[in-house]
Structures are given as C-alpha cells and as structure tokens.
Specification:
The chain is α/β, with parallel strands linked by helices. The chain has a single domain, classed as Rossmann fold (3-Layer(aba) Sandwich), CATH 3.40.50.1820. 40% of the residues lie in helices and 23% in strands. It is built from 7 helices and 8 strands, in the order H-E-E-E-H-E-H-H-E-H-E-E-H-E-H. An 8-stranded mixed beta sheet has the order 1-2-4-3-5-6-7-8, with helices on both faces. The protein is globular and about 45 Å long. It starts with a helix and ends in a 5-residue tail after the last helix.
Length: 248
C-alpha cells in the first residue's frame, strides 16, 4: 500500500509541475513599469512603460515606438528582451492610456511626447547620454527617422516594416540604421543602404519575401509566425546591443 500511495503522489506531483509549466507558457508578457516622462516644457509629461536591466549602468537606452495600434505584446516583449541584454528601454504610449481609436493622437501631441521621452532617457542617471537609440514599427518607423533627423543625440535607429518610407526620409541623419522590410521595398531602398555604407554609415537593410504585414507580431497569425516574430525581436536586440555598446 505504501508503494501504491507513493506512486500516486509522484503522479500528482508530475501533473502539478506540468500544469505550472503550461501556466508559464501562457503567462502574459512583462508589463514594464509605467512612467510619466517629463520633457523640457514645465508640467508636460509623456506616458510609457520602462524596462530596466539589472545593475547600475551606465547603459544604452532605446525608445520603442509602436505601430498605429498602440502598445501591444510585441512591444513589451521587445522591451524586456533589450533589458535582459543590458539596454534600458521605454515603450511610449502615444494614445496616453486610451484605446487607439478613442485616443486619436494628434501629430503635434505625438512630436511633443516623443521629444519628452528622449529627454527622459537622456536624463536618467543609469543611461549613458551618448548611447541613445530609437526603434519604430509600422507607422512608428516614420517617427523614429524623424527623431534621428531632428535630434543628434539619437545614434542608432531600427525600423520594422515601415508603413511608407522614401529614400529622402533617410537624409539628414548619420545614425546607425537597421531596416527590416518586405521584398517589395528592395527596389526602392536597397540603393539607399549602399549609398549610406559608401559614406561610412552603418546601414543593415534586410529584404525578405516572407515578411508580410505585421510579421513582427506573434499575435497577428494572419501575417506572421512565432519564428518570424522571434527572429525580428532578436535582430533588433542584437543591433542595439552592438550599436549602443559601452566599453567596460
């Protein structure tokens, strides 16, 4: 009887452990720490979610700008991946806590929020002010490039499936660039990457026929796969850990 009871106990324990593992797989992504990011204008603050590495730094820092749907799981996963790799990350909420359709963020508000977020990162005691990056997905990619053109503190920019970019959009910045595009963008942007590299600027552009729509989002099953989304996340992580590396 003792042997039977022991066998039943072990079976129950294995079942419980299996359930915990399944619970871990189904767990929501890290949420980050909600922050209000004050800019140069008194009383003005942008909303965002902060992901911090362990330790005191100094660290590089990246501002994450989501697509037109606002903060989604893929942004939070990217923020945590960067923090785990030793980079401070802030995902900005351009809709200020409202659903995207209800928020209808204006262009003027977006620019003010983005500026406040860059100033917030620049002022953090744990961040090296010479190691600031910006990443944008979909419509956020255009804002990322605009920041790089208007703010010389931005030294690295990652773009994932921009909604609409022209070669002229890349002028005026010497920041290191990572571009992840669908095959359709090759004819328009491959020459831009070649020209930038000829001038001594980093320009790593990737054109993949499998990249359709929001392939960077593991929840968008119509346009991506888990493997594609994880690969994109790793590309962004590797780019910034290299571009924002701080000699120790």
């Amino acid at each position: 009887m003792h042997t039977v009871a022991r066998a039943l106990w072990l079976t129950l324990l294995v079942a419980l452990m299996g359930g915990a593992a399944l619970g871990q797989e189904a767990a929501p992504p890290p949420q980050g720490i909600k922050v209000h990011m004050h800019g140069l204008e008194p009383g003005y603050a942008a909303d965002g979610y902060l992901f911090q590495p362990q330790g005191r730094g100094p660290f590089g820092a990246v501002l994450l700008i989501p697509d037109s749907r606002g903060i989604q799981d893929y942004i939070r996963l990217q923020g945590q991946a960067l923090a785990d790799a030793g980079v401070v990350a802030v995902a900005i909420d351009l809709f200020r806590g409202q659903p995207p359709k209800a928020g209808d963020a204006s262009e003027q508000n977006n620019i003010a929020d983005l500026s406040a977020a860059v100033n917030f990162l620049h002022s953090m005691a744990s961040v090296s002010p010479a190691k600031l990056g910006v990443a944008g997905w979909g419509s956020g990619a255009s804002y990322a490039l605009r920041l790089a053109r208007s703010d010389s503190r931005v030294v690295a920019v990652a773009l994932a499936v921009p909604d609409a970019l022209q070669p002229a959009d890349f002028s005026g910045t010497h920041a290191a660039l990572l571009g992840i595009f669908g095959e359709h963008a090759r004819s328009q942007l491959q020459a831009t990457a070649t020209q930038r590299r000829a001038r001594g600027c980093t320009a790593d552009f990737y054109f993949d026929p499998k990249n359709q729509g929001r392939f960077y989002d593991p929840q968008d099953v119509s346009a991506s796969s888990l493997e594609q989304a994880a690969h994109t996340r790793k590309q962004v992580e590797d780019f910034f850990t290299h571009a924002l590396a701080i000699p120790r």
